[in-house]
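Quick check before the chapter quiz. The format below is the same one you will see on the exam, so make sure you can read both the input and the output lines.
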Amino acid sequence: MKSLRPLLLLPLAAVAAQAYTLELELGKSHPTGHQDSNVVGLTVATQVNESFSLGLNLNSRGLVGGTPAIDLDARTAFAELTYDLNARGGIRPFVGAGVGYSWLSGTGSTSKSVLATDVFAGVRFALSENLDLAFTVKNAQFIGVKDSTGANKNTITDWSQSVSLRLKF
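Here is the expected output.
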């Protein structure tokens, strides 16, 4: 019986080997009333169960334009929960939401950091057993961005589309 114990651990090792993902995101951001900018992001996630994953998304984007004019770089960290609608298929649609914090630098705002939220939807295609290609549409809200006088707080709504490669460990 003792010789069977290592065999019982093999399925657990296989699950643990697929429990983490690393995703590189490149895309275009379209803040409402602002100029388009690039989005670059990195997500590290773990599977909670077959359908849910919990991740940390770090990204950078520009928030330029608007009235009054701003020229900000937003670096954001989101805690995101993702639900896979078809976890076992070759084509896997997903939805998710996140909450985070954004550090701002630049001109036109007195805010140095603000609360940020996001909701997203997309589809992943399996390229191999350990690599997926994903297309995502995301709506991010930057809440409480103060104008250059510091008197008015605004919420900047940002729509983005991205393509990403997802590596599964």
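If your answer matched, good. Residues 10-17 have pLDDT under 50 and may be disordered.
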